[in-house]
Amino acid sequence: MRLQARRFHQICQFGGWILILVQLAMLLWQWTSLPSRIPAHYNAAGEINRWGSKLELLVLPGLSILMLTGLNWVSRRPQLWNIPAEITAENQEALEAVTLKILSILEALVIFWFALLETFMISGRSLPIALTLGFVFIMFALVIIAILWLTHTARKYC
């Protein structure tokens, strides 16, 4: 079970690196044609509420790289994880596998969100409200699903 979760994590990590490289390549390809001011922040309605330098376009890929390397480091140290269930010898492998899968899914979603946000920043467009609300709803739902998944897995071993 742990091996399957590790493989899933590696696939998500690989996909994340590919997305970051595509994001940076797109940014470099368009760099000279970008205006000096780009949308730098959006409010909850998806409207641009701050403009900034095009250098700020490097922030999201930089955060993605930090997140990928940081979560890769954390993924190799399950003793640091805050699992909301009692860990026993019987359920440890299953809980670690589930937690690693959840971390991988959340990591992939955030990197995808950053890449999508970067695309809107480059284009100078506002974010569609459905996109903003959809992301918040998906992340909230995933946190609840993750907690339920972990507690269900822990109970199977009680």
UniProtKB/TrEMBL annotation:
One Pfam family recorded for the sequence: DUF1648
Coiled-coil region list: none
TM ranges: 12-31, 51-74, 94-117, 129-150
Residue ranges constituting the DUF1648 domain according to the UniProt record: 18-64
Name recorded for this polypeptide: DUF1648 domain-containing protein
InterPro entries given in the database record: DUF1648
Keywords noted in UniProt: Membrane, Transmembrane, Transmembrane helix
Organism: Holdemania massiliensis
